[in-house]
Specification:
The protein is globular, with a radius of gyration of 16 Å. Helix content is 32%, strand content 6%. The longest helix has 13 residues. The protein is mainly alpha-helical and 143 residues long.
Length: 143
Amino acid sequence: MAPRLHCVRHAQGHHNVGVSNYGIPDPLLTELGEKQCARLAQNYPYHSTTELLVSSPLRRTLYTTLLSFQTETDKGIKIIALPELQETSDLPCDTGSDLDVLTEEFMGKPVDLARVQKGWNSKANGIRPPSSLNNGLLQRGNG
């Protein structure tokens, strides 16, 4: 059977409450956001067949995945943080925390930060710098 891909947007973060909160760096989930995760965890029908979890390294997305897919992480599935999935705007709310901050915050949690490098959250000229993945996609598109 072909693999099935499910995409989940992060639950409500503090920046989603109002435009005035866009200045919050790498915001966490609100209480409502945590309840949204609990609802997803309860209603998601594919817990038994989920084999891979990936997330942006933004804190709101990592916590959405941790809270919504605890069934999977309890089975030993780690959340793979992929910088290529981050927001592209340079607003503080869309700029991730430094790797050392993430490493400390998610220590002991089932989060794999091996693909996140120092400087992953740098936004050059309002956008994130291209990664080797993006460069490869550009080359294939131009080939």
